[in-house]
Amino acid sequence: MTGEGEQHASEYPANGADWTEEHWQMFLEELIEEGIISWREVTATTLGNLNPSQVGTSIASKKSFQRHFPPRKCWEAVRTWHFMQNGKCADCGTRVDLQADHVIPKEFVGDVGLSVQKEIPDLVRQDCARIVAEIKARLVGLLNRHNYTGVQAQLLDNISGDLYNALTSGSIRTQKDLEDVADRLDNMILRCRRHNVIRRPSHANGGLTFLTAEAGLMWLLFVHRPSNYRCFHNLCREYGLTMANIRFEEAWAMARWLQQIGLYEIEPGSKYSHAPTISSLDRIA
Ligand SMILES: [Zn+2]
């Protein structure tokens, strides 16, 4: 995959998924030897990312969770739930960058709620057990279509019952009200930031990458060392990054910063090879 303008370090497999622990160690040692980062910074960053996520804010302070508990008892329940977890991402097992994530996504609960609301008239006068079963069947269908496996039957029953109660309560005004039905403690699980993103239906391409998008950008820059911007842009696209070009241009700043101190080579003909002078910035302003 090494192309023109690319100075790929040949001792590394081109695909990051093929890297061994030795490759990662060697790569980090090179960055440190070059003076780009220090052991202290690497360790401090790692420690920060090991710190458990702020479930006090992301869960316990939300009304949608609080309503399942007596007043001022929500944090106690969230804390107990948090302590009972194994402290690893449910998908990849890492301890780094964990976040509380929904087992059954809010979007699925919202979509099923809307479809039932639209397609079944006179909901309150229908047989309760039949409607709950219908809600459950629609949730299962949606989960299967998106390859969500291993969802407990008890959780499906709980969410289906809650959704039925919400739909027949007369207090549902927005799609968000329906999505909030997913906010139950037994519907929460810990996932790393990357797997949290991949799981969200709106990020269908997140799964193409084995690093978070920002880590992927720096991995491409430091491993492949593209000497022109166009090459960096193409590498990012080949790699499966689907974000706007502005993310690539932001990341390219690292190449420019390192070029200033002789640690990175950029071809004179490359796009963004020269900074505008102060006077041309004045003219833009
Ligand atoms: Zn993960």
Q: Tally the structural domains.
A: 2
What structural category characterises the helix and strand content? Answer: mainly alpha
List segments where confidence is low: pLDDT < 50 over at least 5 consecutive residues. 204-208
Number of helices: 14
In total, the number of strands is: 2
Mean pLDDT: 89
Termini separation comes to 41 Å
Percent in strands: under 5%
Q: Could you tell me which ligands this complex binds, including any ions or cofactors?
A: zinc ion
Global outline: elongated
**Relative helix content:** 40-55%
Sketch the topology as an H/E string, one letter per element. Answer: HHHHHEHHHHEHHHHH
Q: Strands of the biggest beta sheet: in what spatial order? A: 1-2
* Estimated radius of gyration: 24 Å
What assembly state would you assign to the polypeptide chains in this entry?
Answer: single chain
Largest sheet, in brief, is:
2 strands, antiparallel
